[in-house]
Design a protein that fits this description.
Layout (H helix, E strand, L loop, with lengths): L2 E4 L5 H9 L10 H4 L7 E2 L2 E5 L2 E6 L1 E4 L2 E4 L9 E2 L5 H17 L4 E5 L12 H9 L2 E13 L8 H12 L3 E5 L2 H16 L7 H10 L4 E8 L2 E10 L3 E9 L1 H6 L1 H13 L5 E6 L1 E2 L4 E2 L1 H8 L4 E11 L7
Parallel strand pairs: 6-8, 13-14
Antiparallel strand pairs: 1-3, 2-5, 3-4, 4-7, 5-6, 8-17, 9-14, 9-17, 10-11, 11-12, 12-13, 15-16
Helix pairs in contact: 3-4, 5-9
Amino acid sequence: MFDIRKYNQTHEEEWNRFVAGSKNGTFLLHRGYMDYHSHRFTDHSLMFYRKERLYAVLPANIQDGTLYSHQGLTYGGLISGKEATAADTVTLFQEMNAYLRKEHIGRVVYKCVPWIYHRIPSEEDLYAIFRTCAFRLICRNISTVVARDEPIKWEKSRSRGVRKAMRNGLTVERSNDWKAFWKVLEDNLMHTHNAHPVHSLQEMELLKSRFPDNIFLYVARHHEEVVGGYVIYLTPPTAHAQYISATKEGKQMGAIDTIFHHIIHEDFAHVPYFDFGKSTEGHGETLNEGLIFQKEGFGGRGVCYDWYEWDLSSDSHD
């Protein structure tokens, strides 16, 4: 039923056009975003055609005989068009597994696109892997999401932070001062976690240049000094906080609170969901209770980011 083809660069325009019109694709699945770090991964993305028309795509890479729905992305999974149905998607996964066996790929690790990023409902893939793959859940991270239509009252500490920022004269602006914010971010991550940002400053500036309508930096300033900031990834249904950071002084003055207040009540008031990102580590086994408490204080509640795994030597459920 499906003609399965491995992606190559000659398909770039077709891939991007399909993702833009899909049910559940975002700009992270555009090749201009996926391929900025292509040197780190062996791409093995798949394209599924039916009657010579592109029906679905799977952003993926291969490593040590395992197909991953792309390790360079927070989420991935099957990206499908509006005509995709549950029955057809079951068939697609059956045929994909057979194809992968012929390619001597023995295992799949699959990350689905969380529902808050769907333009229209698109969980046929989850039903299909239940039906066709002897899968197990190997990772469940919990993110914190604010729903605009059903707002939850902020915790008093968060509201106090906004008032404190006003008293301290902090100002919030959309900015292109990536260098100043990146120093705040790097210093904070090194001090608190002995870690570095996933993206370098140069990579972030490159991605911003490629996706100027999707990637934004907001900063809080105190006497012209950047004391905190948010990097926002904007998709039609959801604004995602890719990075949040503040100096020690910025935290004390309410920088994080006042930036979020500005974002959610002014610039992105029209966006249905605001995703603060995960507060878990170790495939979801460790919950950072202090971090998630802060996010829940803004009225956010839980959405799970799941990973599934199946062995291609296993029989299907059918």
